[in-house]
Amino acid sequence: MTAPLLKIEDLRTYFYSKSKQAFIRSVDGVSLEVGKGETLGIVGESGSGKSITAMSVMGLVSSGPGVITGKIGFKSETVQKNLLQDLEDYVTLTRTDGRIMAVQKDQDGWREVSERRMAKIRGKEISMIFQNPKQSMNPFETVGSQIAEAVRLHTDHKEEKAAKEKAIEWLDRVKIDSPRLRYDNYPYGLSGGMCQRAMIAMALSCEPQLLIADEPTTGLDATIQSKIADLLAELKSELGITTVLISHDISIISRLSDTVAVMYGGTVVETGPVKDILSRTAERKHPYTSALLTSIPSAENVKEKGHLQAIEGDVLDTINIPAGCRFYGRCSQVTDKVRERCEQQEPELREISSGHKARCWLYFD
Amino acid sequence: MAKTILEVQDLKKHFTHRKGLFSAVKAEQQSIPAVDGVSFYLKENETVGLVGESGCGKTTIGRTILRLEKPTSGKIIFDGKDITTLSTDELRGLRGKMQMIFQDLDAALNPKMRIREILTEAIEVHHRIAEGSTEKRIAELLEMVNLKKSKLSNFPHELSGGEKRRVGIARVLSVGAQFIVADEPTSALDVSIQAQVVNLLRDLQQQLKLSFLFISHDLRVVELMSHKVAVMYLGKVVEMGMAERIARAAHHPYTHILWSSLTEKQSKEVSRKAVSVQAGRWGVFDFERPVSGCRFAPRCPVYEARGRPEVCTDPANEPELREVGDGHRVACHFPL
Fold it and tell me: Which residues of A266-280 are buried (b: 16+ CB within 10 A; e: fewer)?
């Protein structure tokens, strides 16, 4: 593995629910890394904290308390730093039994430092494709001028004309037909798939080091989905850009990623190379991952019209996080030998084979 | 032989689209053929899956069959009775037999009613049952859909997506519906929950001998759920047949491409074919691109490969559904 471009350590992003008088622990100790030029896929069900992890990296979490602790190491040619450096000073955490029970955060102070730092990085070094392409574009401006604006802000093409040419070039690269005409289209004039292409063009136009794609294919039709996936794969091999790909669609992740992180209830429960984790035949994986894989209708499944293996119960409620393993209540692989530990103590993310880590008591002796 | 519960003949639903304030006066109405001549039938205890891209008219068919929309023309025969022109009052009696599971979970359940009230209302509107037995019926329903009793006093927003879906299903069952239009029942759910709902629907079908019109764009789920599948494109059914044959031995190029987009390891040839289809999103009706002849021709790889034969774009010669054996029907001039 090449040196990591992005290395997240023990990131925690909480929100406060006034009606429940409790923290929503959306991201609760996430550690991840992406090597330069690689693609990391993050999979997980809704509410598992995938998007919030991405937003935290971008410094876009605005409601309180938001990001409270952790390290986000980012090492490109020009920037080498922890994006959350010195920000700890603005937060005081009170822990009871090793769990954060109260947070005091100087929002304004944190904001100021973080914004000043992120303004130089966001868009230029790290850029993001958002979940809903239509909503993430300004409806009052043409698609082209929005891309040109990003180009002028972050690259050397400061002149309007040059920026426009650059924008058109990018529209062409993401395979939008007649880019010169489309440049003057407003977002509502584009279909969902085209809008997503335009978003990708905008994100890549400043040639960032890291691209975070948050559910880039969700909400599109099946044929368009596979087309967008093809485009991302092509751009990746062309530009060698490092990508964090977030999706709940396992087929997209397994097609595009080199490494995978499976998230459940705000933590990473398993991470490693794609072939170790997302292939059905691989043994030794986290019970959640194997349950997730079997709940997708497989080709054999469909042929025999067999019963799907559903995971019983519901997605973890990140307000009341249990003391033990987060997946304990839904896990079907608990044995008597580990039951007690599963119930009482949260397992760590530990290596179970080379490069493959899992958070499960079954694999520790 | 199971009896036919629903028969749809040449059903059309055109929406009018008005341009400008005085369009009605100036008679400048344009009509959008959301459903443009669809025929099929559904047997008892059978599931027909309806697939297609968004905007192709799947949901409109479902709504029109239940007479939530007024059909423009055609015939809907439910349980041996022509319901195409029944009045609202006459329909009310039938509502107990045919129901819809709506796509939007949050819009389908009244946010100001507790789950108990939602279910009670559905039961009491459609059936005169003895006081006190409503409670018993609710308990039965909860058991059927595998929902905890404690949820009865919750409001819809307090439930998770899977639970809301279960309430929706329980409500449909509460009136004793035999024919159910399930509009994207799994689309908003996570895979693990989706599997629960698919299993539940299939179990209920066996237990209660239900018939489903299963609308979804998730091809795997449709194939798994359905006995027969109809593939729609721009308001028309382009291919129809047994689920396995549609998935693996499709004759229409569109169907073929739809299913091949699923295969994780696409062959080079298939993905090359798929490119031309995916180039534009013409799955929705577009005034600027009036249909002439085969609707799929502009995106069709076969049309390209055969050197754009004239018959495909001949307005007088739109392909009709033709039998190709075993009840498998295809609307294409050059079936694969």
Answer: bbbbbbbbbebbbee
Q: How sure is the predictor about A53, in pLDDT bands with cuts at 50, 70 and 90?
A: very high
> Chain B within 8 Å of A230 (Cβ-Cβ)?
yes
Q: What is the DSSP letter of A258?
A: S
Band (B179; pLDDT cuts 50, 70, 90): very high
Subunit contact A191:B191, Cβ cutoff 8 A: no
Indicate the DSSP class of residue B34: E
pLDDT at B278: 47
H/E stretch holding B98 reads: strand B98-101
The structure tokens listed for B288 are: 């600027």
Nearest to A261 by CA among A2, A25, A44, A6: A44
CB atoms within 10 A of CB A205: 26
* Cβ–Cβ < 8 Å for B331, B255: no
Whole-model pTM: value is: 0.79
Residue B165 has pLDDT above 60, yes or no: yes
Q: Test A45 with B190 for CB contact under 8 angstroms.
A: yes
Give this complex's ipTM: 0.71
Domain boundaries, chain A: 4-125+208-363, 137-207
> Residue A355 pLDDT more than 90?
no
B4-97+178-249 adopts what CATH topology?
Rossmann fold (3.40.50)
User: What's the pLDDT band for B282 if we cut at 50, 70, 90?
Assistant: very low
What is the domain partition of chain B in residue ranges? Answer: 4-97+178-249
Asked if the model's pLDDT at residue B50 lies above 60, the reply is yes
CB atoms within 10 A of CB B322: 13
Q: What are phi and psi of A65, to 5 degrees?
A: -70, -15
Burial level of A3, CB count in 10 A (0-12/13-18/19+)?
Answer: exposed
Q: Across A95-109, A221-235, B209-223, B311-325, which has the greatest mean pLDDT?
A: B209-223
The whole-angstrom separation of Cα A96 and Cα B182 is 48
- The residues with which B31 forms a beta bridge, in sequence order, are B16
Chain B hits for A302, Cβ within 8 Å: 220, 223-224, 247
**From CA B306, how far away is CA B125, in angstroms rounded?**
58
Task: Count CB neighbours of A76 within 10 A.
Answer: 18
Strand (E) or helix (H) holding B157: none
* Topology (CATH) of A4-125+208-363: Rossmann fold (3.40.50)
A248–B contact, CB cutoff 8 A: yes
